[in-house]
Amino acid sequence: QLQLVESGGGLVQPGGSLRLSCTASGGTLRFYAIGWFRQAPGKEREGVSSISMSDGTTYYTDSVKGRFTISRDHAKNTAYLQMNNLKPEDTAVYYCAAAEYFAPHDNTWHVQDEYDLWGQGTQVTVSL
User: Fold this and answer.
1) Per-residue pLDDT reduced to its tens digit, 5-45
2) Which of 6, 96, 109, 127 has a beta carbon 3.0–4.6 Å from 104's, enabling a disulfide?
């Protein structure tokens, strides 16, 4: 059974950076699209970014474009979310998710029902 574990969250000042990792155990991520989602206090969980399983096509929600970068390393069975120029509104629990044989597109990459597996989440707090 494939399991996902996020790491890399923490407390950072506005303008700072963090890199989140999503590592899989019990199987390979090679045939999964990877998504990053976040849930801020009192808000619904939302899609942040996604990367396809094959050609590495990436998708981002508008609020993080130009600041966040999603990537994956098949050899390490890990996906990453590099977050730069962090803002207080980025504060949330961040989750990685995996969707087997899913080919994300502009109108589907953020649909949570497409993702089969979820990690436990990692807290990101952006504050002075």
Assistant:
1) 999 999 999 999 999 999 999 999 999 999 999 999 999 99
2) 109
Place of tokens 């899609």: 47
The CA angle 18-51-19, to the nearest 5 degrees, is 10
Say what the alpha-carbon torsion angle 107, 126, 89, 92 is, to the nearest 10 degrees. 50
Percentage of the chain exceeding pLDDT 70: 100
Helix (DSSP H) and strand (DSSP E) numbers for the chain: 0, 11
Distance CA 28, CA 91 (A): 30
Rg (alpha carbons) of the chain, rounded to whole number? 13
Please name the residue that has the structure tokens 């094959």.
Answer: 54
Q: Which of 62, 87, 83 is nearest to 71 (CA)?
A: 83
* Residue 55 DSSP label: S
Can you read off the two tokens belonging to residue 22? 């999503």
Query: What's the rounded mean pLDDT across residues 92-113?
Result: 95
Tokens of 120: 């436990």
On whether the CB atoms of residues 71 and 57 are closer than 8 A, the answer is no
